[in-house]
Amino acid sequence: MQTALSVLVDSMLITFVFALAALGLAIIFGLMGVINMGHGAMLTLGAYFTWFATTKGVPFVAAVLLAAAGVGLIGLLLEHFIIRHFYDRPFETLLLTWGFFLISTELIKIAFGTDLRTVTNPLPGAAHFGSFVLPAYQSVVALISLALIVGLGVMLYRTGLGIKIRALVQNAEVASLLGLNVARAYKLVFVAGSAAAGLAGALISPMLSVDPYIGNIFLVRSFFVVIVGGIGQVLGGTLVGSFLIGGSETFFALFSGQVVAQTIVFMLAILVLRFRPAGVLRAQ
Amino acid sequence: MMLLELKEIHAGYGPVPVLRGVSLQLGEGEILGVLGRNGMGKTTLIRCIAGTLPLTQGSIHFAGQEITRLAPHERAQLGLTTVVQGRGVFPRLSVWENLEMGRIAAGGGKRSRLDEVIGYFPRLGERLRQPAGTLSGGEQQMLAIGRALMTHPKLILLDEPSDGIMPILVHQIAEILLQINRREGVAIVIVEQNVPMVFALTDRCVILEKGRVVAEGTREQVSQSAVMREYLAI
Ligand SMILES: Nc1ncnc2c1ncn2[C@@H]1O[C@H](COP(=O)(O)OP(=O)(O)OP(=O)(O)O)[C@@H](O)[C@H]1O
Ligand SMILES: [Mg+2]
């Protein structure tokens, strides 16, 4: 019973961390159709910015916000100088964002070195319920992740900005004929997705040791989350995808090692894609 | 002063020219019909005026300013809006959201014309929460026109509104377009193959054939032209 409960709670925590990590990708991929191979690097940058700022004495919360803004700014520059010229060419944007990943990873190594860095956990406590433990920081991050997803949902489905973005996704030409500045709207979405990735990297940084490849741990999972959940299902898809990927990973890890568990999960994800290519939420 | 003026415009796709020197003029609050058979360049003409296809030659003026090189959204912000062929409703937005998009796309701050639109098209009023993709073709056309009206335009470009709609509804839509034109003072350029629809709306039309205007004038003059007789005989 205790184990079942703790597996459930662990799965929920993992689900929300995965959802947080995947959110930026889901925004950019789901809304714009751009496969951002630089997503992992954006997570990494968010983690390093947080590490750097906290070592310089910036309080953790401010460091997280700075990291999100910094990665958002990098996303803005990337979009403005490169990506926006290639929106109608998905393969080129894939290669270009991959180039961004390679270059920024090298720059991170030059700037911060390859040593493992640690960001001090700002909330080291935990609540104990018998044998089962609820870590405070992870719980707060899960709540932030949930709040971001709900907030994004409210924005998309309850505001004028949301109407504009959904209209843009459904028919960009008609949106522009009604007066929408499509280039600016795409820019906004790309920056929002980048900032979300930066925020995710920042919030994840105290949970793991920070190295130049920390983002990659989440990159493949993020892609699976987005694809299993269903591309374009930015909210429900991200949550359901994260739960399936994160939950089953936690579950299988009970009976086998982490690596075996991940392999099983990826194989299951591939099966899902084979039989439900539009994602679990959407029948073809 | 003319509201819309095209001077000798040329445009096409790649090396193939489609429009080869089209000139047109339209005053404020006027309705102009552009007739032409399939593939004669009607949609191409609309796209040139709306700004989604660049000209290779010629110029376009709208409301006292040259717009030849403006982006579609900049033209829309000046009061030139377009109802595309096939209507282009946002299928997964509700009817209300489609209409609201018309009001806010250019930045919001405009007075909502929802009541007027529902007055013209009561069927939309009964379906405000319905996803636009589930409307019938005729209802989608009403929605597209209503949405255009929500942008507070000076000019609406209509690309074959009769396409795929039964004749009785085409007639109703023409009536409502006339009302909109009279009450709101909106000018209309309507591109059509459906001759009765155009004649129900306006006296002034041109015939487009192989990228050129081959006849121009009042309904009577155009009806008498050799091209039109050939056209109606088909
Ligand atoms: N995107 C495109 N690329 C290449 N050629 C095109 C393109 N769009 C249209 N054409 C060609 O340009 C010509 C004019 O097309 P257009 O769509 O303007 O005709 P139309 O008068 O609107 O026809 P319809 O009544 O069928 O809508 C046609 O020969 C068509 O094949
Ligand atoms: Mg056409």
Concise account of the structure shown:
The complex is a heterodimer of chains A (284) and B (234). Chain A is mostly helical and 284 residues long.
Can you characterise this structure?
The complex is a heterodimer of chains A (284) and B (234). Chain A is mainly alpha-helical and 284 residues long. Chain A is built from 11 helices and 2 strands; from the N terminus they run H-H-H-H-E-E-H-H-H-H-H-H-H. Chain A has a two-stranded antiparallel ribbon with strand order 1-2. Chain A has helices at residues 2-32, 39-55, 60-81, 90-112, 136-158, 160-170, 172-177, 182-204, 214-229, 236-255, 258-275, and strands spanning 126-129, 132-135. The longest helix of chain A is centred in the first third of the chain and has 31 residues, at 2-32. Chain A is 74% helix and 3% strand. Chain A is globular, with a radius of gyration of 19 Å. In chain B, strands 6-7-8-3-9-10 form a 6-stranded mixed β-sheet, with helices on both faces. A 4-stranded antiparallel β-sheet of chain B has the order 2-1-4-5, with helices on one face. In chain B, a hairpin with a 2-residue loop joins strand 1 (2-13) and strand 2. Helices cover 38% and strands 28% of the residues of chain B. The A-B interface holds A 160, 163-164, 166-167, 170-171, 173-182 and B 50, 52, 71-73, 76-77, 81-82, 84, 88, 90-93, 97-98, 100-102, 104-108, 147-148, 151. The complex binds adenosine-5'-triphosphate (ATP) and magnesium ion. Adenosine-5'-triphosphate binds next to helix 1 of chain B. Residues 13, 18, 36, 38-44, 85, 160, 193 of chain B line the site of adenosine-5'-triphosphate.
